[in-house]
Amino acid sequence: MIWTLFKVIIFITIVAALTLGAGVLLDTGGGLQIAAAGFEFTLRPLQAIIVLAALFAALWLVMKLAGLLVAVFRFLNGDETAISRYFDRNRERKGFQALTEGMLALAAGEGRLALNRAIKAEKYLAEPHLTTLLVAQAAEAAGDTRRATEAYKELLASDTTRFVAIRGLLNQKLAEGDGETALKLAQKAHELKPKHLETHDILLKLQAEQRDWKGARATLGAKLKAGALPKDVYRRRDAVLALQQAQGVLDEGASIEAREAAIEANKQSPDLIPAAAMAARALIDKGDRKAATRVLKKAWDAKPHPDLAAAFADIEPAETPQARLKRFKTLTANHPDHEETRLLMAELNIAAEDFPQARRALGNIVETHPTRRSLAIMAAIERGEGSDDAVVRGWLSKALTAPRGPQWCCDKCQAVHAIWDPICDNCGGFDTLSWREPPEKTGPSATGAESLALMVSPPRAAPAPEPEPVEPDEPEVIDVEAIVRRGG
Length: 488
What we know:
This protein is mainly α.
């Protein structure tokens, strides 16, 4: 405090002296006259200015010497770093100036300039945490990955900067596509900061990509504990992970563990269609057909789906088509007017060779919402009723260019998947597949297939009067299980 006050007083004195001297100089027409110790000096205005500048330089030098004397005095009193701090003060000023310029250049996107300023700051400052981190980030911005990696590795030595260093190396490995190394780094970062939300998301994504479902469930639980995930979303995603864990155990042949995991996934999210289907088959393997029926009915009540119908058919695989038709009515009692229910009943009646009832079950779907599946079912009905081949071909030709109907679509990138998977193959999104109709692109096809219907007899708009039942010589057997499993 005393030294600071002393410097302020000196500065005010200098300013006052300069002001007084300028006033005297202006009042003196012939120059500045100085009389001292019997001598008299006359200075012209220019000479006076030079003398004043020399006096100012002398005062600056005196101040520096005074600072050095104070540092020496402190050193003699036991402050071992007083002299080094005196000489390093100017270096610190230059270093912090370079550090500031580097940070501003980095924020402005000037990677090369930021790297140059960071190297300069590293030279002047003894602050490795700040300068090395700036060097690493500036090198990344400039595209110098080698220097960035070296800087991050230097930061690993300190407990204070270890997490930042691991995070930087993790981002580098993600950019390089090295998922295996990135997973190890993400696990280490999670150990250092278990509540870091960005690390949770990266680790969960990497574990899902590596099919480490057990580890992904643990990470999801940590995210719930950190308060970054609602409970309903957690139950849904944990059910997805449990389902995939069950599938993996099933692939390894441990059916008991697979059954338990599949049932657990279904309990956590009853409306998850793949979980319901797998849990039902697990219960069938245990011999508990009633429980399997309950699981499928509950899932069907939430959303009718072909996979649920296929699992329901597996409950009694050896039953006759007529018995299957009767048993399925207990499933389709919920949502009887749903399009999936009507298509399913039409397929079951075709398998039972009740083609008029199949036509009634199908209704006007081929007119209100024609899809490949509904048009193919209509062609099967026409074939079963003995219609001309031209009529059957007419329905099949329309099916060539009809929409595909509901599919597993990614809500993030709209990619269509043949089967459900927790990870989108196109964009890598987790739990983004939903059963819905994908957006159809309108316009003529490259092969002109839409004109094929004009080359054959058009499909009949209304059914002909029902003829007397005639047993065909060689009735065509339609495998409804294959149709149900195929889902259109």
